[in-house]
Design goal:
mainly alpha; extended; 3 helices
């Protein structure tokens, strides 16, 4: 089965990778999903801060650039 592409995939992604990610999350139990979310939000990896609304676009660009570098394969 091939997916109809309605938008461009990020660099390094293909249909197989998308299907693999979907399968991973769709097969998770609720407990596994909660544990993954809790681990992802651990203080050692992330923080929460208040940002002035007018600076949010700048932060989003910085985060997107960081993620693009980190996940480019």
């Amino acid at each position: 089965m091939t997916m109809k592409r309605t938008s461009q995939l990020p660099t390094g992604w293909d249909e197989k990778r998308v299907r693999d990610v979907l399968e991973y999350y769709e097969s998770q139990t609720e407990d596994e999903a909660v544990a993954e979310h809790e681990a992802a939000l651990s203080p050692a990896r992330h923080t929460v801060m208040e940002v002035p609304v007018d600076l949010v676009p700048v932060f989003r660009q910085l985060i997107a650039a960081h993620l693009q570098k980190r996940f480019a394969r």
